[in-house]
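Supplementary Methods. Inverse-folding protocol.

Structures were first reduced to a discrete structure-token string of length 306. This string, shown here, constituted the complete conditioning input.
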């Protein structure tokens, strides 16, 4: 069930939301998208709680009125009435745990009702990725119909596994090329530094591309309009554009990162792959050795009777 973007809140609910928003924007080091998600999750919980308690609470939302059972009822609501997937339910619960943890530290409540609330168990599923034919079709499409910049973007995504944010903000001086080696200096999540090695394919396209950039260019892939860093939205549009030419549905920059992860996992130890991709936990990297739905379908087809 699709949830309402901005469910109405009482005056008290709006005040609680505004107070938390002020803290997130002024005191936390978060991206605008993270702030939007935290506030959206909190807003929907407040709206649900005010609706559930309408007959009993006339003044609207109060922090002191939230109990652990109320939070577990909300979890059930998301799973049953809301029909949310486990990942979506858990995202909402993590947002609420963060909020009530903050409220406790601010002495707005005497105890944290979210501490005892458990996340929803779920089976980790392997992320979608392109197969060999799809990758070849995508590269052929951008090679035939795209600009040099767009071709280098797609090739680097496929051969470095960079996140969309990382490749968009990549500066020219972060590219280090040698005769038979090279690497990218990446500032990843939480400003964590790592060096991503460049294979022969990546080095070749960069050696072709770098001389075409104006001398005063800062970003490796500047926006055609602003000359500043390419936006993640623009990158998504670029990938989608050539995916459509290649007749591939719903391809995103993250799918190209996954393609890199799967191919590398076939021959590279997981701890090294985690280092290249900037994963904090090997649990994340382990997803690349799990089969996708298509992989599993193909596996069981091998024993089908004909």
């Amino acid at each position: 069930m699709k949830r309402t973007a901005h469910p109405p809140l009482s005056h008290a609910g709006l005040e609680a939301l505004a107070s938390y928003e002020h803290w997130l924007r002024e005191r936390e080091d978060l991206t605008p998208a993270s702030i939007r998600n935290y506030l959206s999750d909190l807003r929907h919980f407040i709206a649900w709680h005010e609706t559930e308690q309408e007959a009993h609470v006339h003044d609207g939302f109060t922090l002191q009125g939230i109990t652990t059972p109320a939070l577990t009822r909300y979890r059930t609501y998301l799973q049953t009435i809301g029909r949310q997937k486990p990942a979506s339910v858990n995202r909402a619960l993590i947002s609420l745990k963060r909020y009530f943890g903050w409220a406790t530290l601010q002495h707005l409540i005497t105890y944290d009702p979210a501490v005892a609330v458990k996340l929803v168990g779920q089976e980790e599923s392997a992320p979608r990725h392109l197969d060999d034919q799809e990758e070849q079709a995508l590269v052929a499409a951008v090679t035939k119909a795209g600009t040099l910049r767009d071709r280098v973007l797609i090739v680097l995504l496929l051969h470095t596994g960079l996140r969309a944010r990382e490749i968009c903000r990549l500066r020219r001086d972060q590219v280090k090329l040698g005769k038979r080696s090279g690497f990218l200096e990446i500032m990843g999540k939480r400003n964590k530094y790592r060096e991503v090695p460049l294979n022969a394919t990546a080095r070749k396209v960069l050696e072709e591309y770098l001389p075409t950039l104006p001398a005063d260019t800062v970003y490796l892939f500047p926006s055609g309009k602003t000359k500043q860093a390419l936006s993640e939205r623009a990158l998504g549009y670029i990938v989608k554009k050539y995916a459509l030419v290649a007749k591939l549905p719903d391809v995103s920059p993250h799918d190209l990162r996954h393609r890199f992860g799967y191919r590398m996992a076939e021959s590279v130890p997981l701890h090294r792959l985690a280092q290249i991709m900037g994963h904090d936990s090997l649990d994340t990297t382990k997803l690349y050795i799990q089969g996708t739905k298509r992989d599993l379908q193909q596996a069981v087809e091998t024993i089908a009777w004909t």
